[in-house]
Amino acid sequence: MGKWQKITPSSPLEAYLDPIADFAFVLVSFYAFSLRQFYPSWILFVFVFMFLFFIISSNKREPLYDPLGKYYGTFLLTAIGITLLFPMEVVFNDVLLLIIAYTVGLIIYRTVYLWNSRRESMRWLSEY
User: Lowest-confidence range among 32-41, 56-65, 115-124?
Assistant: First the structure.
């Protein structure tokens, strides 16, 4: 009982349930914020793009988790909390800029990570 154990999902759907739930919560929250005109509605397309990028760049059996991706989810949940606690335009502007910066950084990081992983697997295959 004292050690943490990794839970292996029994199906691909089970492996993706947590990221899907997080995505749905973030999307619904920012949709509500966009209705209140806290954030522009195009931010929803950014989240849909990032979720699709996550799905496409993951393997079919289980999601590809990287540290920045996990922090991105935590950051977005924190952004929701900050927006609810401090509903001021200056906060909205700062949060929006941080979302854009973090998103661009994550796209670059994940693309380079995937590129290097693919290159490494190709090199490994060519050795045998």
Answer: 56-65
